Each structure stands twice: as structure tokens, then as C-alpha cells.
Amino acid sequence: MTQNYRISKDSSQIRLLLYKEATLLSPLAHNHVMVITDLDGMIRYDAQNIGKSGLSVTIPVSTFNVDSEQFRREEGPDFASKISDRDIKKTTEIMLDKDILYARKFPTMSLDSLSVSGQLPQLSVKTSICIKGNVCEVMLPVHVDIEANQMKIAGEIMLKQTDFKIKPVSVLLGSIKVQNEFQVKFNIVAELE
After folding, report:
1. What is the pLDDT of residues 79-113, one digit of tens each?
2. What is the per-residue DSSP string for 21-35?
3. How far apart are CA 153 and CA 176, in angstroms?
């Protein structure tokens, strides 16, 4: 029997960790933490046939929290540098501009499962991720806990910006750059409907 779970916006979170590339002026740059909490979506769970399970998540691009001091502290020493409000605003503007996420034209990103395999609590979810109209299929390793009327899904994966046709930020003739590869950490909580 299939059960449907609604993703909890208050308890769910996706973090994107972007790292500076080692360049001549990289000591002047910093790594970035971008956090999304306004997730919307459903999880379908079939205990008898895990292959019939799946998920669909919509992520509003404009709700990213960029370089919050709290989130940077939680991510440890790689994110210890202080960032001014002016730099946070500029980073947010660059991220939402047409060269990166193009938020005006593509206000949401999406994540949809294509297949699910494995045994609880460790599952593999073949997923279609759409960013800025560009789709990439990835295999997400996830840890799933089901307690009473609640499901928790956690995991992390490395992705590449160029897989979504996004050119990593480079300024001052390439003397400050963001690495192509970035880390995604997710903790999703969903409630049984």
C-alpha cells in the first residue's frame, strides 16, 4: 500500500556548499553556504515494493539564504571567514542573475525521482534535477528513517555546475574563481497525509 508524505517546509533543508578555487587572489575570496528551507513536495512510499516509491520537490530560487553567519559557523573552519552584508548582497545578486540561476525566467528548481532501489534505511534514488531549464540525472544515496507518521531523508552528493550549463563564477580575469564542483547536503522531513 502506497503512503503519501508532504514535505515539511519548517523542518526541511538543502545546503549548497561552494568552494573557491586556488588562484593568485584566492586568499581574498571565500567559500559560500547557500541554504534553502522553503521546499515544497511529496514523497510516495510503498513498503511492499520500494520501486514504486518516489519523490517530487520544487525549490523556489529566490528564497536561498546566502552566507548566513549561523550556517557558515555550522559548516566549520572552511567557512570561518566573516562576510559583510554588502558582499552577501552582491553574491546573492550574482547567483540570481541570468549567468547563474536566472531567477526571473526560472523561479524554481525541481527534483523528481525516476527510480528507487535498495533496502531501508539505505536507498538509491535515481533523480532528475532541473536547474535553469537544464536537466541532469544523478544517483542520490539517501538514508531514510520512518517513525510513526514522519519520514526523514538525509544525504549528500557532489555535483558540477557545468552539468546544468552554468559557468562557474570567475572575476578579475580569473584571479578569483569558484570551483565547478559543489556539495549538496539535504535533510528532508515529511509528514504522513
Report:
1. 988 899 999 999 999 889 888 899 999 999 999 99
2. ---TTGGG---EEEE
3. 35
Cell (9 digits) for 164:
546544468
pTM of the model: 0.91
Distances (CA, A) of 69 to 12, 143, 167, 186: 19, 28, 26, 19
Alpha-carbon Rg for the chain in angstroms: 18
Pick from 39, 42, 12: nearest CA to 113: 42
Which residue from 176, 191, 185 is spatially nearest to 26, judged by alpha carbons?
176
Copy the grid coordinates of residue 166. Answer: 552554468
Which is nearest to 142 in space by CA: 45, 75, 1?
Answer: 45
* Residue 67 near residue 23, CB atoms below 8 Å: no
- pLDDT of amino acid 178: 86
